[in-house]
Amino acid sequence: MAQNKDKYKYFRIEAHELLEGLGKDMLELEKGKSGKDLVGRILRHAHTLKGASRVVKQPEIAEIAHALEDAFAPYREQSNEVPPERVNHALGLLDLIAARVSSLDLPVAINTEAPLPVSEEFFETVRVEIAEADKLLNSLTEASVQLTALRREAGSLERIRQLAGNLRGCLTLEPGLNGNEPREASASVKLRALTEELCTHLEHLERNITARAEQVTVEFTQVHDAANRLRLLPAKTIFTSLERAVRDAAQALQKEVTFELSGGDIRLDAHVLTVLRDALLHVVRNAVAHGIELPAERVSSGKPAQGRVELRVERRANRAAFICRDDGRGINVEAVRRVAVLRGLVPAQDTTSLHMEEVVRIIMKGGVSTSNTVDEVSGRGIGLDVVRETAARLKGEVTMSSDHGQGTVVEICVPVSLSSLSALEVETSGTVVALSLDAIREIRLVADHDIARSATKESIVYNGKVIPFMTLASALRREAVGGRKRRSWTTVVLEASSGIAAFGVDRLLGTANIIVKPLPTLAFAEPVAVGASLDAEGNPQLVIDSEGLIAAADKEITSTPKPVSVERTAILVVDDSLTTRMLEQSILESAGYEVELATSGEEGLSKARKRQYQLFLVDVEMPGISGFEFVSQTQNDASLRNVPAILVTSRNALEDRRRGEQVGARAYIVKGEFDQGHLLKKIRELIG
């Protein structure tokens, strides 16, 4: 799609990097760090920013950058500290520059998604070029599919070698020739020699191809993992903005606060950091504004005048925990009790028995976070509403604890990446799906008689507690293989913030590191599906949301309708595009059709002649045999001419439509006008 050129794109990228560096160095100066080296770096960054601003004809930004140079130039050769008021003035200039950079026009997209906000653009482009990393990952996935196909072809060499060996055996067993036939004997000897040479070469070729295919597979895995790591940024990427937030809040409220950061080298998906940053800004601001006391209050209670806020990042398997701890006053339990009664969250007679744990649960549920009560409840409600929503968006969890007079701890635990997942692959009703390993607590064999059944749900006893049980086939609204009755179930126990539940599956296939791709907008999928991954052969498989799955098992089953029985009509999809094959297969299988895939016209013809299909769904533009040629050849084949074909293409010219009709296509669908309902309606018209 066409898109206007963004003349400020690279300037915004450079300016954001320079501003972050300037802000970090100025905060170091304010702490009293040695000024000479820091001032030199600040002057270089400001000078670079001034020059870049003039190149893109932004004189106002250039003038402010020049003012930064003037502010620090007197301290270039001095080792003494830069006055705090000078740093404070410079930070104000940085804010002016940041505002002007953010106000620069972004390009107007034509028929595309809206451009990213500047704050997200910084994370998307400055650090790792996320789009390029994604392109690399997609290319590697496609290449991996082709490599798998090559390895299958290499297997056919073994059969060729066996045939050559059989030929050699036959020649060895050939009866001896008499001396009157020297010419025939000579030919036989040569034939045997050639056969021996053929066997030797085939054996050598098979050994080399197999070994090199294995080596390439290993290297592909390493490159794929490295490309996936490119999408991850160190947590310290957001430290400067958090440090600035703490500093500004402390200054505004006339408080003395030290901010300690650790774990900045732990890497997370850029999208995760982008979303998480805003939530953490609420957390650290609240820690200063409503946790840390004024200096006089702290001294009177026996604390140091200077408060302390700590943000620590920890890696926990495939998740990262952001732990914010302050040494402030803690949660005002009495205030929360009063607000809880006013809002009807607890009866008045129960408030005297509310302990800290119950107070935290009330706050975490929300409903006590309005502007007129924020001071009364230490300001934790509003921030936690944002934090709670952010954690849910990232499929993470947030917890809080507080000790009166000693401080509060807020912990946000989120996945390191939303696109890369360590998963357990399982099969249910012929469908392969992926479950997050993080959510799996145990895998066990559950006897059918140990499943308690009521009119509304099923359950089992797990670690002394009754938890919901559900077949994964039921969650996906598929009929269980062999029916509901069996002696035992392979059961996966999942736990998430929404609870714990057990799910019966047909079999376990193993673990894998997968890349989660968003489902095509036109694809039908169950609500518990969060995306799809591709197996080694390029076939899509659903990735299941543990939270949604547990919630589905916990719901009472009011009725269990039988799945609609759809005759398994076979459709052959022929398309060289992996994305299009994935989309069409998802749509057709969800509608109850049996789908086979071919990646080229040649493969499609080979499959069409080996099995009876009721419909061909064919791309037009493919290397080798085009869709037009495929339809033409099937129409000229007496055994295939009665199978209707639908052409799917991006070509919308009248002559292309006419050619489709001439070769015998029964329908012509343009990808730009693709509609799932129209496709299924056309298929029903053709084959019922």
Describe this entry's structure for a reader.
This protein has 688 residues and is an alpha/beta fold. 46% of the residues lie in helices and 21% in strands. The strands form 5 sheets. A 6-stranded mixed β-sheet has the order 10-14-15-13-12-11. A 5-stranded mixed β-sheet has the order 2-4-5-7-6. The protein has a 5-stranded mixed β-sheet with strand order 16-8-9-18-17. Helix 1 runs antiparallel to helix 2 (35-55). The longest helix is centred in the N-terminal third of the chain and has 48 residues, at 182-229. The two termini are 37 Å apart. Residues 108-128, 369-382 and 557-566 have low confidence and may be disordered.
